[in-house]
Amino acid sequence: MNGGRAPRILCIAGSPRRRGNSERLLEACVEGVREAGGEPDVLVASEAGIQPCRGCNTCSRTGECVIADGMADVSRRIDAADAIIVASPVYFATVPAVLKVLYDRLQPYWARVHRLGYPRPVRRPGALLVVRGGGDPFGFRAAVDTTKSVFAVLGVDYAAELRVEGPDAAGDILGYPTELVRATEIGTVIGEAARSRGSSE
């Protein structure tokens, strides 16, 4: 896949808030990616300039989205990635709107395979880091399942997951050193997995 170069790991920050708890988890994860010899490509969903999906279904006929915006750059970065890591807070048991908009705009990837008969994407590893304040009885499940659905469309194997419950205000995650270490470990695991797959192809 990577032709001998350092594996490129797309690291998606899914929070509408910069430097919040999920983004700090992602920063720790990026350290692990670098330790594994990977090349992190950090994508901030809230700054990607993406409009919501219109549900027009044009992509089911053409394989392309009709909306001309920042999603073209996002798609290029997705296509170039040897692995994908997503970090997100949990809002009402699922991912926040800025990340869900990105997820919804991936419909062309589904349409190409399931409507137009394109080859399935090359398999690559992925991971999810999610953090929530707690108190919601519905927990993490919707955020996790939504991301697993997206990964399935992109050909991403769900290789690692970190759920952190408790941090709420920005910076609270700094009081969870064990979880930060685990995030770094996940970055290393994903970076090594991407490198291994690339060298075997």
Structural features, described:
The chain is α/β, with parallel strands linked by helices and 201 residues long. It has a single domain (8-199), classed as Flavodoxin domain (Rossmann fold). The protein is 41% helix and 19% strand. The protein contains seven helices and five strands, in the order βαβααβααβαβα. The chain has helices at residues 21-35, 59-62, 71-80, 97-104, 107-114, 141-154, 177-199, and strands at residues 8-13, 39-44, 83-89, 124-132, 156-165. The chain has a five-stranded parallel β-sheet with strand order 2-1-3-4-5, sandwiched between helices. α6 (141-154) links the parallel β4 and β5. It is globular.
Overall structural class, as computed from helix and strand content, comes to: alpha/beta
Low-confidence stretches: none
Number of helices: 7
CATH C-level class: Alpha Beta
Number of strands: 5
User: What is the general shape?
Assistant: globular
Helix content: 40-55%
Largest sheet data: 5 strands, parallel
H/E series: EHEHHEHHEHEH
Mean pLDDT: 95
The CATH topology, please? Rossmann fold
Architecture (CATH level 2) name: 3-Layer(aba) Sandwich
> CATH superfamily, called what?
Flavodoxin domain
Number of domains: 1
Strand numbers in spatial order across the main sheet: 2-1-3-4-5
Strand content: 15-25%
The Cα radius of gyration reads 16 Å
User: Terminal Cα separation, in Å?
Assistant: 6 Å
Keywords:
single chain; 201 residues; alpha/beta; Rossmann fold; five-stranded parallel sheet; 5 strands; globular
